[in-house]
Fold:
Amino acid sequence: MSLFVPRFDDSVVVCDAAAEVAGGDPVAVRLLADSSATGGALSTVRVTLARGADGARPHLHRNSAELFYVLDGAADLLSGDDVVTAGRGDLVVVPPDKPHAFAAVPGSTADILIVITPGVERFEYFRHLQRIRLGEATPDSLLEVQELYDNHFLPSAAWDGRR
Structure:
């Protein structure tokens, strides 16, 4: 077992009004703390999904675990070949190398706090997604940065069958 000890000097404080938001309706991503701010300990965002909106397609992270805490509403979460429905106050942690995805349950909104640990610089990834939404980049451009963001897309029959 290895122990990772993050190194950073100051507490990270992010006021809601000051946080950058990438996206909007139907998917808004509030950028809270990136890996560089936490000495590599974690990266965290808050994702707000409109009714039934997809949050992320099936993917995995080779070097990080991902934590999903449902602040409000209900979300479907893929974990391997299982799709779990999580409601307010529920927590799902997906280990490295396990396929996962998330979306608001059809007919419901979802507000989810997401933490990746150890951290990966992810803010630019969400800005890239925003450029795709605005037509400034193509969806295929994500394939070119999978290694950079440790975000590897893959097919999932379990997710496709549920969504």
Q: What stands out?
A: The longest helix spans residues 123-133.
